[in-house]
Amino acid sequence: MTIIQQLPEICLLNVLVFCMELIKITPANVKQAICTAIGTLEQGGIVAYPTETYYGLGVRFDREDTLEKLYIIKQRPKLKAIPLIIGDRKLLSLLTTDISEKALFLMDRFWPGPLTFLLPAQKKLSECITSGTRKVAVRIPGESFALRLAQSADFPITSTSANPSGLSPAQDAGTVVRYFQDKIDLVIDGDRSPGRDPSTLIEVIGDKVIILREGAIKKDLLLFPRN
Q1: Phi/psi-derived region of residue 113, left when phi > 0, alpha when psi is between -120 and 50, beta in every other case
Q2: Which of 67, 123, 155, 222 has its CA 20 to 30 A from that of 38?
Q3: In angstroms, what is the C-alpha Rg of the chain?
Q4: Cis peptide leading into residue 156 (ω within 30°)
Q5: pTM > 0.85
Q6: Facing residues of 34 across strands?
Q7: Domain assignments of the chain as residue spans, ordered by start
Q8: 168 φ, ψ to 5°?
Q9: Mean pLDDT of the chain
Q10: Which CATH number applies to 2-223: 3.40.50.720, 3.90.870.10, 1.10.260.40, 3.40.1110.10?
């Protein structure tokens, strides 16, 4: 295991031999950490990174082999789709061809932020992402390392929570390491994540907003937006 500026809380794990890199981000190295993360994603690796809620697991959206591995290491049922993050709305063209005016209005209002949209998926999108629903879940994340990573990448990135199915989402790098050990390639350590409510998940059909999961953005703000 390659450790850069190793954290004390994972010192007890050093007796294990991992093929994993861990980078503790600081103001001085955050740009290099982003470059390393993007390089790992482009090469088909799995990256754990902090978001504005919990830690997420990222792979490049069009790497079928790595998407399959992500399901395996999370022990995630194939019936559960994998959400994505992007750093620019221009990337939506890679994922969907149908965005309503109401959805665009809400994107303007709440992105970047914890609002995930369920959109009709491009036909070529992997079933690992859509889980056979032909829909894709995507957001621009709120202020966090995840946002800076997504803004620096020219491709969508998965943002499924960093935990095996049935266990609590990881809020720190040490928990990520304990969960996955050498099954992932890079851990970006941004200290403890806030662990607040997950993103709100919605689907917009015409002018109707359907709330599939209420999270950080509450129902009243979506159904009765204030100018």
Answers
A1: left
A2: 123
A3: 17
A4: no
A5: yes
A6: none
A7: 2-223
A8: -70, 145
A9: 90
A10: 3.90.870.10
